[in-house]
Amino acid sequence: MSYLRQERAAKLAMMESIAASQQALARMLHCIADISSYSDSTAKSLAENIRLLTQYQGQMAFVISGIEWQRQHYGTPSLPWFNEACDAVWYAVRGVLEGSE
Predict the structure, then answer these.
(1) What pLDDT was estimated at residue 95?
(2) Domain boundaries defined on the chain
(3) What is the pLDDT of residue 40?
């Protein structure tokens, strides 16, 4: 087996391992939902540990594959920006559609 094939096989095995681990983390989060009714502090601690594990796995996946997971962005989204040249087309189509009803 060539070096390139061995490298790809190792990367694939690592990605499969990360995917299986993510499934296990999802099951843990499901269990945390049950635990949270009994102990809020324990649930928060477990959730923080799972968050850190997920970040670690995301970095491992990035190193292996070069594909970065999407980061979550918090805040209020701004209004969509449209090119002014597209406005005329949008209004023309809108007028046609409204007139046909």
Answers:
(1) 60
(2) 1-70
(3) 75
75: region left, alpha or beta (phi > 0 left; psi from -120 to 50 alpha): left
Q: Give the span between the Cα atoms of 45 and 28, in whole angstroms.
A: 12
pLDDT tens track for 56-86: 888 887 887 776 666 677 888 777 766 666 6
What does the alpha-carbon distance between residue 20 and residue 61 come to, in Å, rounded to a whole number?
13
Q: Residue 8: its pLDDT value, please?
A: 85
DSSP3 helix / strand / coil % (the chain, rounded to 5): 75, 0, 25
pTM for this structure? Answer: 0.50
Alpha-carbon gap, residue 61 to 57, rounded angstroms: 6
Q: Which of 45, 25, 26 lies closest to 35 in space, CA to CA? A: 45
Both tokens of 21, joined, read: 């681990």
What distance in Å separates the CA atoms of residue 16 and residue 91, rounded to the nearest whole number?
49
